[in-house]
Every structure is written in structure tokens, then in C-alpha cells.
Design a protein that fits this description.
This is Acyl carrier protein. The chain has a single domain, classed as Non-ribosomal Peptide Synthetase Peptidyl Carrier Protein, Chain A (Orthogonal Bundle). The chain starts with 16 loop residues before the first helix and ends in a 21-residue tail after the last helix. With 124 residues, it is an all-alpha fold. The protein contains five helices and no strands. It is 46% helix and 0% strand. Helix 2 (25-43) packs across helix 5 (93-103). It is globular and about 35 Å long.
């Protein structure tokens, strides 16, 4: 995981990790939710002028198993956080943003993979 996440990431609109680290927890969680919603709007082909609901489970908004699995892999790759596909399907944007924030190691920004090449901790 680098300090500059960049636009090729799963959550391409996400600020760099240093900027996220500097935010208050509430602002950081809101930023994560916003970026997750933007990504999901594109992934789920949400029409212009509409938004993914922050309070409805993603499964009921059209997220399927394959997209949840791809999103799970992207989050692990880009943020070093393990959120399982089932967690993504059952969760809301607000819940998932809070979970992402809680699982990210802001004090020491853990790498996306350990020295042994395994994904960082956390199961979802």
C-alpha cells in the first residue's frame, strides 16, 4: 500500500493515505463512504442524478456475488483491508465505510501484504 492511492485503485476518488490519516475519524469515514458510493454508482450503472443509498444493503441495490468478490479483492489490494464478499453484499455503504476505517491501521498504515506475501489481517 502506498501513500498515493491513485485513480487506478478500486476507490479511485480516494485521497492519499497521508490526507486520510490527517482527517478526523468522522470526516475520514464520510470520505470513505463518499468514495465507495462513487465507485458503486459506476459499478452498478446508477443513472445520472441518482446515488447508491448509504443505508440500504448493497445486495438490494444490485450488487451481485461476482462484483462483490471483485470489490473485495480491490479493497484488499488497494487498502490492505480484508472485507469478504458476503460482508459487502449484506452491508450498507455507511456500515462498510465505518468498517473500513476501523480496520485500517491509521497510526502505522500497515502494508497491503505482509513480508510473507499474505494479505493484511482482518476477515469480513
Amino acid at each position: 500500500m502506498t501513500d498515493d492511492i491513485g485513480n487506478s485503485s478500486t476507490l479511485g476518488h480516494l485521497p492519499g493515505l497521508a490526507d486520510l490519516r490527517a482527517m478526523s475519524p468522522d470526516v475520514r469515514t464520510a470520505t470513505l463512504a463518499h468514495c465507495l458510493r462513487l465507485h458503486l454508482d459506476g459499478l452498478l450503472h446508477v443513472p445520472s442524478g441518482h446515488r447508491t443509498s448509504p443505508h440500504e444493503p448493497l445486495r438490494t441495490q444490485g450488487l451481485d456475488w461476482l462484483n462483490a468478490l471483485n470489490l473485495s479483492h480491490g479493497i484488499r489490494r488497494d487498502l490492505g483491508v480484508e472485507l469478504g464478499a458476503q460482508t459487502l453484499l449484506d452491508g450498507t455503504v455507511a456500515e462498510l465505510a465505518a468498517l473500513l476505517d476501523a480496520r485500517m491501521a491509521w497510526a502505522g498504515a500497515r502494508p497491503a501484504a505482509s513480508a510473507a506475501g499474505r494479505p493484511a489481517t482482518g476477515r469480513g
